[in-house]
């Protein structure tokens, strides 16, 4: 799964996002988006900009792929850990935000089984880390954007960074910033509520009771793992600036818990930014508060030492 070269043979052009990116599927759950040759190494075109009729003809496909990869390797990489069940349309909106800033995007999608059986989530986190250590990505500055359950997947990767070999810790030095949107934080009960709302909203009460029984029956394989994950996140090896998006009415994100994490990080010397709303929708703050969300994100990204193009979001 972690071998990018195997996925490159099956690379296909993607006409999404106004034909501004190429899609390379690395595995069934990890996808890489990068600018094609016409934009590689060049400032992103503002929306609506037309190509010049005097533009030189496109080079052969093989040369195009090679040159695109070369130019791409010099750009920052956004690693987007999406929420569970994310569909292409909503994900594309986040992807395009970063493509428009001259970054490439690595989309990491999570499975509910990664959460329900944490050992599988830990294995998956290691696979994602191995991908980020491949030659095409290993020297690039990284920005992380984790949404909902994606924050859990990112934490499983962090566990390997925090407790692994020195080469694993190199990722922590490459991360220039991290964004957290609608993290699922709180007690086991909060997690059980989250499962109900995610899997079967109409039967969330029943799912919650089943989940609590499951956590009790398999405490060593679930609850104990979650506690260790919480400690890893609290004392994350990544100390780059962070941005949190959350709302007071989010049943999956305990406000006091997320704010205590931010306070702890500030005491550890992390520059923490945040935007809280009284009312919003879990993992849909961008849709509910687009202008506020985008302006906050823009301000945060402008404060980071990323060598990306200065395209406006």
Automatic annotation (TrEMBL):
Cited InterPro entries: AB_hydrolase_fold, DUF829_TMEM53
Superkingdom of origin organism: Eukaryota
Gene Ontology molecular functions: serine hydrolase activity
Name by which UniProt lists this protein: Uncharacterized LOC115404206
Span list, region Disordered: 1-23, 39-68
């Amino acid at each position: 799964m972690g071998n990018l070269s195997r996925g490159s043979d099956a690379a296909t052009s993607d006409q999404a996002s106004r034909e501004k990116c190429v899609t390379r599927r690395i595995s069934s759950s990890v996808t890489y988006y990068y600018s094609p040759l016409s934009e590689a190494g060049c400032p992103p075109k503002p929306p609506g900009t037309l190509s010049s009729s005097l533009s030189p003809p496109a080079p052969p496909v093989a040369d195009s792929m090679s040159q695109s990869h070369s130019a791409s390797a010099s750009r920052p990489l956004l690693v987007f850990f999406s929420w569970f069940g994310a569909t292409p349309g909503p994900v594309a909106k986040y992807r395009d935000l970063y493509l428009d800033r001259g970054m490439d995007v690595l989309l990491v999608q999570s499975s509910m089984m990664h959460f329900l059986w944490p050992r599988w989530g830990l294995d998956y986190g290691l696979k994602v880390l191995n991908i980020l250590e491949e030659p095409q990505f290993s020297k690039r500055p990284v920005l992380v954007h984790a949404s909902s359950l994606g924050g859990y997947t990112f934490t499983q990767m962090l566990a390997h960074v925090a407790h692994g070999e020195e080469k694993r810790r190199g990722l922590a030095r490459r991360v220039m910033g991290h964004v957290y949107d609608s993290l699922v934080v709180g007690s086991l009960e909060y997690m059980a509520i989250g499962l109900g709302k995610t899997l079967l909203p109409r039967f969330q009460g029943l799912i919650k009771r089943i989940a609590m029984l499951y956590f009790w029956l398999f405490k060593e394989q679930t609850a104990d793992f979650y506690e260790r994950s919480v400690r890893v996140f609290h004392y994350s090896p990544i100390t780059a600036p962070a941005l949190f998006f959350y709302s007071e009415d989010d049943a999956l994100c305990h406000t006091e818990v997320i704010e205590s994490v931010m306070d702890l990080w500030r005491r550890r010397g992390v520059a923490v930014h945040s935007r809280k709303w009284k009312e919003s929708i879990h993992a849909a703050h961008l849709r509910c508060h687009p202008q506020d969300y985008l302006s906050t994100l823009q301000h945060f990204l402008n404060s980071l030492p990323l060598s990306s193009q200065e395209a406006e979001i």
